[in-house]
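STRUCTURE REQUEST FORM
Protein name: SDR family NAD(P)-dependent oxidoreductase
Source organism: Chryseobacterium suipulveris
Requested output: structure tokens
Priority: standard
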Amino acid sequence: MKTALITGSTSGIGKATAELLAKQGYRLILCGRRTEVLEQLKTELSQLTETFSLRFDQRNFNEVETAIQSLPENWKNIDVLINNAGNAHGLDCLCDGSIEDWDAMMDGNVKGLLYVSKMIIPGMRERKAGHIVNISSVAARQTYANGVVYCASKKAVDVISEGMRLELTEFGIKVTNIQPGAVETDFSKIRFKGDEERAKTVYAGYDALKAEDIADAIAYCVNAPKHVTISDLTIYPSAQSEPRTIHRSM
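Status: completed
Returned output:
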């Protein structure tokens, strides 16, 4: 039975992926910041598979290191790492952007991914096996106005994924970079500081992707035959032709 560690597992893509992999028989290490939600998810998925939970803020390396080092011996061999946790904050031009928002995006989307990966990769290298899935975005493919820092953070995920592949393939470690288009989760609600009405407009007039769609793609990648690596995968809803263009019915 394989063990998968999923960051940002308490909502959206992370939660959908955890639910799907649990049904497929993976042991799960569920990671997040919200203790109550994390424990509730652990209780639910424990009906399907073995689960373990780690609470940490991946923007803080000390928390990441302490949490992962605290894993019991029988949970330390991680076969699949899904770097899902990330965020978008604000939709302002650079001149009006919030330093706090910039730090949150760069620390969460880039440094956090690096921190978690740094703790997991040595074990994979030693065992000469493993699979790392990084969740990027179509924002990495085309920068858009008022989202420059978010786009830059996701472009960094693309570059990190490529670098990981160059460094880790010889050790039998697969690396997959997934770029989702518009996915209807809490993403826009967080970006707009809890403004639910504004967030709804992002997904109005077309069928956006669901978290389960990305979970399906992740499961396909991690379950591919040993000789197959899905290196990069871009997923749009049918109504989206490129990062900035969505064809709406209204």
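Reviewer notes: The first strand starts at residue 3 and ends at 6. The beta strands are 3-6, 27-32, 51-55, 80-83, 130-135, 173-180, 232-235, 240-242, 245-246.
Form closed.
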